C-alpha cells in the first residue's frame, strides 16, 4: 500500500470514528448502551472470527495467560470503555464527547512521568496546561457558577474516564502487540468482549433491564444498520487501517489524524442534532487539540515528519 493511499484511508477512518458519536446517540433511542455495544460486538466478532480462521495457527494465541491478558484489554478497551462512552453520550453533547475522549495522549504523558520518571519537557508541560484549560472551558462553558452535579456533568465525567481508560489500553496493549499481529489481537479482543457481554444483556440488570432477546423484534432497521456501521467501518476496517499505519509510519504520526474526529463530530452535531456550539466550547476544543498536539510535537519534529512529506512530494514531481 502506498503512503498516499494510507494517508487517505487514515482520513476516511477518522471520519468514520468522528461520525460514530452521532450514530451511537441516535441508535440509543432503541437500545441501552450495553445492548448497543453487544450489537456492535457480535457483528464485529463474527467478521473477526472469519479472519482468525484464515490466520495460520502459529500466529494465533497460544496460552491461557495471553487469553487472560487480552480479556483484560477487551474490558478496558472495548466492553467497559464503550459502555461508559455510550452512557456518557446519553447525557452530554457529541462535541464534548469527542473532545474529552481525546485527552488520552496527555494521560499517557503524565503516566510516563509518574511511573517511568520521564522528564516532561517545557513544550509538553505547556501542552498539558493548555489541555487542562481546554477541558475546564469545555465542561464549564466559561462559567463555573453554572456547573452543577447533573446529567451534563455526569456525561462529561464519563468521557474523561474514557480518556483515562484509552490511555491505560494504549499502554497495556504494547506488551501483547510485541507477540502477536495487531489484527489478531483486536480479533481476540472483540470475540472475548462479546462473550463478556452475553450475561450482561441476557439477564435483567440495570445495564439491560429487558433482555435483548425480548427486544429483537422491536429493534428498528436503522439501529441494526447502526450496529453494522459501528462494526464494519469503525471496528474491523478502522482498527486494521489504524494499526497498519502505526506499523508503516509510527504511532506519533498516526495519532495526528485523530484531530479530525472532533471536527466531524462538531459538524454532524450542529447539522443533525441542532446542538449549540458555544464560543467557550469552541475555544476549549481548540485548547484540547493544541494541547494534545504540543504533547506530540517533539516526536513529530524529531522524525522530521512535515519535512519528509514535503521532500517526498517534491521528489515525485521531479
Structure notes:
With 318 residues, the chain is mostly helical. It has one domain (3-316). It is built from 13 helices and no strands. The protein has helices at residues 3-27, 33-54, 64-91, 94-101, 104-116, 122-140, 151-177, 182-202, 221-249, 251-255, 260-272, 279-302, 305-316. The longest helix has 29 residues, at 221-249. It is globular, with a radius of gyration of 20 Å.
Give a brief description.
With 318 residues, the chain is mostly helical. Helix content is 77%, strand content 0%. The two termini are 22 Å apart.
Structural class: mainly alpha
> How many separate domains?
1
- Helical percentage: over 70%
Total strands: 0
The sequence of SSEs as H and E is HHHHHHHHHHHHH
Rg over CA atoms, rounded to whole Å, is 20 Å
Contiguous helical run count:
13
Low-pLDDT runs? 304-318
Largest sheet: none
The N- to C-terminal Cα distance equals: 22 Å
Give the overall form: globular
How big a fraction of the residues is strand?
under 5%
- Give the integer mean of the pLDDT values: 82
Pfam families: EamA
Keywords: Cell membrane, Membrane, Transmembrane, Transmembrane helix
Family: Belongs to the EamA transporter family.
Membrane topology: Multi-pass membrane protein
